[in-house]
Amino acid sequence: MGPEKKSSLREKAKQVPSRPGIYFFLNKSQQIIYIGRARNLRDRLRSYFLPTSDLKVHSILAEATDLDYLVTDTEKDAAFLENNFIRRFQPKFNLRLKDDKSFPMVKINLTDDYPSIGLTRRVKADGARYFGPFHPAHQARKTIDLIAKYFHLRTCSGALPKGRKRPCLEYDLGMCSAPCVKLISKEEYQENVQNALLFLEGKSHLLLPILEKKMKEAAQELEFELAAHWRDLIQTVKSLQQKPKTSFPSAINADLLGWAKIGSSSSLFAFFLRQGKVVESAHQVFEQNSLVDNEEDAFFHLFQSLYSARQDIAEKIHLSLPLKNKKILVDYLWQTKKKKVRIISAHHGKYQGLLRLANLNAEIELKKRKTIPDSLISLATTLQLPSPPRWIEAFDISTTGGVENVGALVVFENGQPLKSEYRRFRISSHSGPNDLASLQEVLSRRYSRLIREKKQLPDLILVDGGKGQLRVAQSVLSSLEISSIPVVALAKKKETIYRDLDHEGLNLDPTSPALKLLQWIRDEVHRFAITFHRKRRAKQSFSSLLDDIPGIGRRRKALLLQNYSDLTSLRQANFDEVAHLIGRPAATNLFARLQSSVSSSEKRDN
Ligand code: SF4
User: Fold this and answer.
1) What crossing angle do the helices spanning 204-220 and 186-200 adopt, rounded to 10°?
2) Nearest Cα to 256, choosing from 187, 297, 205, 317?
3) Which of the residues 139, 166, 460, 524 has the least number of beta carbons within 10 Å of its own beta carbon?
4) What is the DSSP letter of 206?
5) In which residue ranges of the chain is pLDDT below 50?
């Protein structure tokens, strides 16, 4: 990381709130490379920029180009989030936790006549009750020991052992009532189970006075060991009272959406709860305009932006905002994703804590935007824009001799790539090499759609190229009667910026933050276009290879294209797997064709 980038991250770290939460370091492709947690986010992040001999810190900072964070109420909540997010995103510098198991839970198997108590890391819908997760992890083991000691539930796993003549050591240690040799009746054992459940459910207002009395009595009778045991139990009951907001002890899937509004800006912040754990978060920010000027419409726009690029959608979506028209959200997900959902508005049950946290993070996202990066201020000054362009859209076209023409769009929000808004276009209006016509089609499709859907228009459009590309972009906007969006073209050869058709291009100092930002955006859209183009070509040659193979008609070809992304993945597949999909005779013909295509390409290479 260069000194400029480091100083911009240091500045960013100073703006972070002094609250518990988790933080992320991101690389130039906006991939998360490290996730950490902190009791005080600001102090923790600032400490990264103090002199240190810690190699890990140096390695993270060498690669990081951005940092981000989200806040929680307690460090314990942050610990659970950190663990879940690391497992989901597998950041390269979190090697320590990558393969770690999740936090443990206590399980009581209620389907058994004599339920056992044990430790697990996986919640299943199997009729058992689960408690936790526990942080630190040793609290789970301690809790099981306490339940065994005070409520005498068995800890042997599986079904109740049969045919035993005498109980095991657990009974001798006073840790089990030995139902295996019928030293306790079923009714009495069930009563102990109910008491243990009360304890685990944290009905502390009933339980704590009794336990405190027992502890005092034991101490008065000089039974200090017993008093210490009651003390431990009291501590565990108290720790169970502080349930984390970010993990639930059951296999729940839900999307929880928080909402905030400051002035004309509104923000949506989502926690995605999967199998009872928050495994991901996302946010969207929207600037109200003359087309969208009420809260419900703004919410709908944010909702659309959030879900348009998302496949993993829960069946229940909880909102912190009491919306009048929830049906519009349900219809949108049904029409665009064929997903049936239930929208639950202004929920006050078990998700209240997490929804409040989502609201708080939505508000913080709005506050983050108040900090304008230097590069945007420099760009606004250089291009004489009315305000720093917080939302920039950039376009590029990729083709090889007019075969498989594609277009790409990338979005930079507040000077950073916003990958959820990236879009790809297959050119359909013409064939053959014609970059300008392709650009015209892509721009027309993009902006006529934004107008149709009443969506936010960008603050600046960047096209890769010179005056020709600038002319096309301006004429598309004018045909759509859009006069408010400035357009610039950046030509590669001398990095000349064209803003106006009637004037010469502008050549900035190579160290200018404005030029560096434009180059970054141009290179990013170029990379995105080329990647898409290569994929399309690979798919095309894969598709043609499947033509004219005996036994492979339209249906089998479609099955192969659905299951294998390209020729390489098909070549790596084993014969039985493919035969299972399309039948043995067709698979035999296919493998023969694959073999002959390898032989002929080898001959060509020789
Ligand atoms: S005494 Fe019997 S029921 Fe209790 S833990 Fe041992 S084997 Fe299991």
Assistant:
1) 100
2) 317
3) 166
4) H
5) 97-100, 601-606
Q: What is the pLDDT of residue 69?
A: 92
> Which residue ranges make up each domain of the chain?
3-98, 105-201, 254-369, 380-526, 546-605
Superfamily of domain 380-526: UvrC, RNAse H endonuclease domain (3.30.420.340)
Helix, strand, coil percent values for the chain (each to nearest 5)? 45, 20, 35
Structure tokens at 12: 């960013």
The number of the ligand 1 atom at minimal distance from the alpha carbon of 167 is 1
CATH class of 546-605: mainly alpha
Is the distance from the beta carbon of residue 379 to the nearest atom of ligand 1 less than 6 Å? Answer: no
Domain 3-98 class in CATH: alpha beta
Report the C-alpha gap between 528 and 521 in whole angstroms.
11
Are 254-369 and 380-526 the same fold in CATH?
Answer: yes
* pLDDT at position 97: 46
User: Candidates 117, 170, 173, 177: which one to mutate for ligand 1, based on the most atoms within 8 Å of Cβ?
Assistant: 170
Burial (CB < 10 A; 0-12, 13-18, 19+), residue 330, is: middle
**CA quadruple 302, 45, 60, 100: dihedral sign:** negative
Alpha helix stretches (DSSP H) within 264-371: 295-308, 327-337, 352-369
**pLDDT per position as a tens digit, 534-559:** 877 777 767 677 777 788 887 887 88
